[in-house]
């Protein structure tokens, strides 16, 4: 998809046209000041790194500065609330993830439905979770983990930074007993995993890439349909015969509901142009993010609803709640 790119100002003019020639002068000028990209995680983490890479390229496409604002904690609620407190004018954009939807499905109290208060712009990409085990676990693939789990009188201990449905999904699909050991953050979890007090962890690549490279952890499966470029030798769950063991996180852009459709369309056009950039795709790939080929609000929302339904099915089956 990468090709000859137009100067940013020319591109900006095309985005204005994409928004519709009948748009008011105020809308046609969008954006005429910096845009705030709100991230529901602390600076330095995998989601923040992805957001900043996207913000840099997207800002070039829009010929406007995009300022990343980190509002971590609270399962992503403070970040959404920050966007909802701002006008619906496209100058406060949410860098969305599945966290809030899953939290709501688990029963976390919130006064709004994220699917109603935020309008989709487009998908940035998906980050397949990677199943890693401590080297003491005698498994190099899912079949060996399944055999090991079934040979034990006690469940396999999976770490989780909070209540999670993905651990139970592994147990369900492999037909083994698992115990979800919850932590108040990834730091203590990784300490116990590296020490062998936990058997396994299902996590996006950025959180364990260094440990896999050093041999401190062993990656045995990518929980997706296609392999990760950063882990070419690790087979997917589908390739290993477990087509329903799909677990990934997604990231995308959303704005407050009620934002003029011309602005949503212009942002979407800029996002597609940014995602066509070879350098951005390379950076995202190195971080374990499979960048979207082309996106639009409808396809993004469809993916979100599909992921939500999958999570809710596991949550209901195992009666999970906060």
Automatic annotation (TrEMBL):
InterPro entries from the UniProt entry: BUG, Bug_dom1
Alphabetically ordered keywords of this record: Signal
UniProt signal peptide: 1-28
Classification via Pfam families: TctC (PF03401)
The keyword Magnesium appears for this protein: no
Domain of life: Bacteria
Family the entry assigns: Belongs to the UPF0065 (bug) family.
Protein name: Tripartite tricarboxylate transporter substrate binding protein
Lineage: Bacteria, Pseudomonadati, Pseudomonadota, Alphaproteobacteria, Acetobacterales
């Amino acid at each position: 998809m990468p090709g000859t790119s137009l100067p940013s100002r020319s591109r900006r003019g095309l985005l204005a046209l994409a928004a519709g020639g009948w748009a008011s002068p105020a809308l046609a000028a969008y954006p005429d000041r910096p845009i705030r990209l709100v991230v529901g995680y602390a600076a330095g983490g995998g989601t923040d790194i992805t957001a900043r890479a996207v913000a840099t390229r997207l800002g070039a496409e829009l010929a406007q500065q995009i300022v990343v604002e980190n509002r971590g904690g609270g399962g992503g609620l403070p970040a959404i609330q920050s966007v909802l407190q701002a006008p619906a004018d496209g100058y406060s954009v949410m860098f969305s993830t599945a966290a809030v939807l899953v939290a709501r499905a688990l029963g976390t109290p919130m006064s709004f439905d994220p699917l109603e208060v935020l309008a989709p712009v487009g998908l940035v990409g998906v980050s397949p979770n990677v199943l890693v085990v401590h080297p003491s676990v005698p498994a190099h693939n899912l079949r060996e983990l399944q055999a090991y789990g079934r040979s034990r009188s006690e469940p396999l201990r999976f770490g989780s930074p909070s209540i999670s449905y993905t651990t139970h999904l592994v147990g369900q699909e492999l037909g083994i007993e698992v115990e979800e050991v919850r932590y108040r953050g990834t730091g203590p979890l990784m300490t116990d995993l590296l020490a062998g007090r936990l058997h396994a962890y299902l996590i996006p690549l950025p959180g364990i890439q260094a440990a896999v490279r050093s041999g401190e952890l062993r990656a045995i499966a990518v929980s997706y349909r296609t392999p990760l470029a950063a882990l070419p030798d690790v087979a997917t769950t589908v390739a290993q015969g477990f087509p329903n063991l799909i677990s990934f996180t997604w990231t995308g852009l959303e704005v407050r509901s009620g934002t003029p459709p011309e602005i949503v369309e212009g942002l979407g056009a800029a996002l597609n142009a940014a995602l066509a950039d070879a350098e951005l795709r390379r950076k995202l790939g190195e971080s374990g993010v499979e960048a979207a080929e082309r996106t639009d609000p409808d396809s993004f929302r469809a993916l979100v609803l599909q992921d939500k339904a999958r999570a809710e099915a596991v949550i209901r089956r195992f009666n999970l709640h906060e």
